[in-house]
Design goal:
twelve-stranded mixed beta sheet, alpha/beta, binds S-adenosylmethionine, about 30% helix, 10 helices
Length: about 325
């Protein structure tokens, strides 16, 4: 069992397979990074899998593949099959913008993938274009339909931004209700890589929008999930991910692995240790030691601050397109 330095059980590994993305979402990566990490610096799927086996053997039960846009990396279905064939009861999920799902969903499902989290920030073509800086909506919606058609579990993630898509919270909720899928509204997390003129919505403001149409009941958090769940009066459930509160840090059960082999204990901080040399040398014991050290040093909580007026607050230097969000 993996226990961190604060006594928390860690059983969830998020693996970013590429930092590259076919969107340029303003809250994540508005410009192409000055230079992408050269492909030769990325760990191969076999090398990533070597670490994943260590993590599974030591107690990881849930794996999420993310990016950048994970569907851009060739051979992703074979990587998923490697994990599935090693332990088929792993909760195996992927986070995607859905753009490439019309042509890949069936292969992913056949490889053993169980669930998808899909980013959907707007149902208006021009707003979706403004956020992603590309004409994306039609393919994204087709991708969602394809995922549902092949039988993958689907959840939607939306990041509400003031003056951009804050008028669509109820529309996205209705869209998800109609498709019988759950939406989670994510508070915008300030970071150095985003368009700095953006302003996110606080959890409280998001709930106020929902209350314009529905009465809601707080259900609470589901285990270690960062999502706080709510129930509408018609029985629909939705979630709110509010990292500016730290109450989910105390149950944090996750670590992150980047495509270059950095093991990251907290989304907010720069700290990381590399498993690169270990997996390149097939050194399972070495990889296991790095994992133990990262767990021992895992921070107690992130530093996104609830107080907007606190000008001393730091902004995270972490790029979500590297860590996978
Ligand atoms: N390309 C995939 C996608 O679009 O979902 C996976 C990577 S993306 C970095 C993973 C998640 O991080 C998405 O749900 C996205 O909305 C979220 N995300 C990225 N930047 C964020 C930010 N600044 N604040 C809140 N969520 C963010």
């Amino acid at each position: 069992m993996l226990i961190d330095g604060h006594g928390r059980r860690v059983n969830y590994l998020r693996v970013s397979v590429t930092e590259r993305c076919n969107f340029r979402c303003q809250y994540c990566m508005p410009e192409k990074p000055f230079s992408w990490t050269p492909k030769e610096n990325l760990l191969s799927f076999e090398e990533l899998f070597l670490f994943i086996k260590v993590a599974i053997d030591e107690g990881v039960t849930k794996i999420r593949i993310t990016g950048g846009e994970p569907l851009l990396r060739e051979g992703l279905d074979s990587f998923i099959a490697m994990i599935y064939n090693y332990k088929n009861d792993i909760d195996l999920a992927l986070t995607t913008n859905a753009y490439l799902l019309p042509e890949t969903a069936q292969k992913l499902k056949d490889a053993g993938l169980k669930r998808l989290n899909i980013s959907l920030d707007s149902l208006k073509p021009q707003v979706a274009h403004q956020i992603a800086q590309k004409d994306v909506l039609e393919k994204v919606l087709k991708g969602i339909d394809k995922a549902l058609e092949v039988g993958l579990g689907v959840k939607i993630n939306m990041v509400p931004l003031k003056g951009v898509n804050d008028d669509e919270i109820l529309d996205i909720l209705e869209y998800c209700k109609e498709k019988n899928i759950k939406v989670r509204f994510i508070e915008y997390m300030e970071n150095n890589h985003a368009n700095q003129s953006l302003e996110g919505m606080h959890g409280k403001e998001i709930l106020t929008k929902v209350k314009e149409r529905y009465s809601i009941k707080a259900l609470g958090r589901e285990g270690a999930s960062p999502s706080f769940n709510y129930l509408l009066d018609d029985g629909t459930e939705f979630g709110l991910i509010d990292p500016h509160k730290h109450d989910f840090c105390e149950n944090c059960n996750r670590i992150r692995l980047t495509a270059e082999g950095f093991l990251i204990p907290c989304l907010y901080f720069d700290e990381a240790m590399s498993i690169r040399e270990s997996v390149k040398n097939g050194d399972i014991e070495g990889a296991s030691k790095v994992l133990a050290k990262v767990l021992a040093d895992k921070p107690k909580e992130n530093r996104w601050n609830e107080d907007d007026n606190d000008k001393t607050q730091e902004v995270s230097a972490r790029a979500f397109y590297e860590t996978g969000g």
